[in-house]
Amino acid sequence: MKKSHVININVNGKDYTVTVESRLLLVDLLRRVLGLTGTHVGCDTTQCGACTIIMDGMTVKSCTILAVQADGRKILTIEGIGSENKLHPLQQAFHEKLALQCGYCTPGMIMNAYALLLNNPNPTKEEIRRAISGNLCRCTGYWPIIEAIEYASKLLSKNLEK
Amino acid sequence: MQVEQIQKDKISLIGKTVLKKEDKEVLLGRATYAADINFPDMLYVGILRSPYAHAKIIKIDLTKALKMPGVVFGINGQDLLKLDFVKPLPPFPFQSIDPFKRRNPSIKFFNHYCLATDKVRFVGEPIAAIAATSPEIAEDALEEIETEFELLQPVTDVQTALSPNAPLLYEEWGDNIALRFHVLGGNIEESFKEADLIIEEEIRMSRCTGTPLETRSVVAKYDADKKNLIVWDTTQIPHIIALLIKKALKIPELKVRVIQPRIGGGFGQKWGLYPEEVLIPLISILTGKPVKWTESRTEHMHAISHARDQIHKIRVGVKKDGKILGIEDKILADIGAAYYQGGHASIVTTAFFVPGAYKIQNYKAEVLGIVTNKAPFGAHRGFGKSEAAFVIERLIDIIAYRLSIDPNEVRFKNFIKPEEFPYISVTGNRYDSGNYKTALELAMEIGKYWWWRKRQAELRSQGKYIGIGTALVIEPSSSTRMGSYNAGYYSVHIRIDPDVTVNVFLSGGEEGQGHKTSTAQIIAEELQIPFEKVNVFEGDSLLCPIGSGSYSSRFSVVGTSAIIMACRALKEKILGIASKALQQPKDDLELIYGKVISKRDGSSITLEEIAQIAYYEIYRLPENFEPGLEILYHYRDPNIDFYPDEFGRVKMFSSVPYDAEMTVVEVNPETGFIKILEFVSVHDCGKMLNPLIVERQHLGALAHGFGIALSEEIIYDTNGQLLSNNFLNYLIPTSQEIPFVKIHHIETPNPFTPGGFKGAGETGTVGPPASIANAVEDALRPFGVKIRKVPLTPIYIRQLIKETMNKTV
């Protein structure tokens, strides 16, 4: 059995060619090999959603996919959606609505919301509530996050109008 | 005129919502949590944990594991004993017996090392460690460790633990009782003589834990030449961990610096000395390499501190009108193996606060802390008060039902009245302030209590089971304990630099509460320096003043007080320097937005110039003034009293925030499923420093409360195997389970703090088990169901309904 593989992967718009062990998880590739530690690990059973990223437009729990499965794919992580001078509307909304405390679930939560808003630009509170039910948060009680995502959807549609 | 104009510029941020300055890095994915810290050449540690609840270790052989490529180092408990500088884990938080020998519980201590040496006492106890070049290799190597155990009978419940022939966890103790404590006030027997009714009940709370979303992680880096050890640790108590590491690793001249990086939630679970916090530094010392260990969720559930798990056998004497005369309580707590004593302290706390918000002056409580073969007991948001609140608030509803009166009437009748504060409770603590009746009335008004009562009757005739529950819970905070590291003061170091940026070094740390923002709000207002120019540092044992960390909601009580008082002392100095420079009397001067201005003639001097004088033109300082603009301030909590009063009581909790709640539930008797239709919380934590931060923390705390009320339960089987070992079977609430909550605040200032603040952030955890359980029992009244424990899982509800149905048949 081949133990290591060369994979090509695009993360946040940047191409990487890396040699990885067969069993390396995508989240470990991001965090340990590429140094993108914004994506977090909160469990080892695919329950908490802290490691949520976007792969080819779809949300993926990156702790439950092998790095080799991401060969040839486009990955978007929390580091790829905003910058210091221009926060993404989701980041801005989480800040303004105080939708984070410890912040550990926040990157996964934001990436999940990012994908939600791609598919449904104007979700209702109930739709948001359902969409984030796979992402655990232990600090907020969720409603501030729901409020922030709803607010971000409004900020985004305003941006589109401009 | 000029002064009035300038008054408008006055920075006023205390009590205002200010967005958190520390969150940008998190939002961009750049915050550094402990697991994000990496060094070249770093080793990764895997920990082998006991698969058995109770066993003698016969063999732990690492030979095969050490031969694997990539494995650099391995160690077991017997190897530890060969290193004479390695000592047993020092106790925490109690470090000695009570010097006054009056109030502290009797505690049995035990010498545990950072790896089990001869015996294991819970599934998940660390028994060996491997360091390798990757975490995957370390994990592989753990599988190659050969072990042999002699199994012993596990003790998995308190009844078994107390039985005469019970297997002993610690043979030398002679029994399984780690802690005994009793507290007594008034005369319980006399009070019961006057009672119209004496009610006896057994009320329980199940085992649960806080599950911060970030598991624990420790990174250690040792420089052998300098004997410098730096530890990045997911802890709430960096200074204490630094001290305890030095006690556990007696290397002459060892220098230890513990840094608390950004923390992904604490909730008490990161308050305590865990074996890994000594083991990982030890491996760095022995290998000479940077070393990292990150806990998996499954490891976390096995090895993190658990909480609650108490049985209360309680008797209460009441008059016909609902007046409570006295309470007697026997508390049995299942504290697991006796590794840390955080949990010991929590059961003592429960015994202090069973009387809750009520004027009950006849009280007796006996506490037994019983060891079992489970993970050790520790702190958890709501520390001991959650259990007390559940017991008293359940009891109030039981009393009301027995006397056929509305439960709120019983509450109103027994509440401590606003004019009775500061109130000395029967257990000796001084409650700072409160407005309990107003809060509960408001909750009932917002929740439309009487409307729901009518609606309940209507719906019941349609076969729908609606229940209404209320509760008023207290969460005494900012605790101090004699003989412990919780020392009753808070230190802060504030330095105004020559360019008038302010560097503040707090002696605590934080896990997401927003201390940097709150601190900057205070500094900006007190010193009239822009918010943006305030830098706040915390969670570093070297950089920051000695402190006992972040716990017991103490920042908003003693932390803010220290900052305010330090600022006021600095302001005095600033005005003194200005007075000389402007040749104006100090009383005529005012500090406003970066300037000191004379109210008499409008002349002014900037803070930059004052700083210039303080640092570089010291010949312009008033006589006897020291150079510099910095201060180290130690704030001693004025509402703590170490010396016992005439009844031998001490005052150990300095502020009492509280929450009045009203819950409406619908219970489906077919499925046992509970739906929350309405939840109202009227919260009082005194003055609010930053209302949005308070509100968000309160909602988060309520979310913990909902979990404890409805679904969270640590379950062991009779072999001591943990069944609730990950998020699949330890059910913390998701977005679907948290109901919409109507939160309202009232502000009854704390007279003991300069800002009027009380503790905030834990009270929400305390209430929901009580208010929801009250509502569920009310809903199921037609079935005669008695709710005497949480969580109210559908299985439990179904079981209760079935039992009562069987009885009626």
What does it look like?
The complex is a heterodimer of chains A (162) and B (809). Chain A has helices spanning 26-33, 89-96, 106-119, 125-131, 143-161, and strands spanning 4-11, 14-21, 52-55, 58-61, 74-76. Chain A is an alpha+beta fold. Chain A folds into two domains: 4-80, Beta-grasp domain (Ubiquitin-like (UB roll), Roll), CATH 3.10.20; 89-161, DNA polymerase, domain 1, CATH 1.10.150.120. In chain A, strands 2-1-5-3-4 form a five-stranded mixed sheet, covered by helices on one side. In chain A, a hairpin with a 2-residue loop joins strand 1 (4-11) and strand 2. In chain A, helix 2 crosses helix 5. The radius of gyration of chain A is 16 Å and the shape is globular. The model of chain A has no long low-confidence stretch (mean pLDDT 96). Chain B is of the alpha+beta class. Chain B has three domains: 2-31 and 489-636, 2-Layer Sandwich (Aldehyde Oxidoreductase, domain 4), CATH 3.30.365; 34-152 and 215-263 and 270-303, Alpha-Beta Complex (Aldehyde Oxidoreductase, domain 3); 401-479 and 646-808, 2-Layer Sandwich (Aldehyde Oxidoreductase, domain 4), CATH 3.30.365.10. Helices cover 29% and strands 24% of the residues of chain B. Chain B is built from 22 helices and 32 strands. In chain B, strands 3-6-1-13-10-11-12 form a seven-stranded mixed sheet, with helices on both faces. In chain B, strands 4-8-16-15-14-9-32 form a seven-stranded mixed sheet. In chain B, strand 10 (217-223) and strand 11 form a beta hairpin. In chain B, helix 11 packs parallel to helix 12 (385-403), helix 16 (515-527) packs parallel to helix 17 (555-582) and helix 17 (555-582) crosses helix 18. Chain B starts with a helix and ends with a helix. The interface between A and B is large, with 57 and 54 residues.
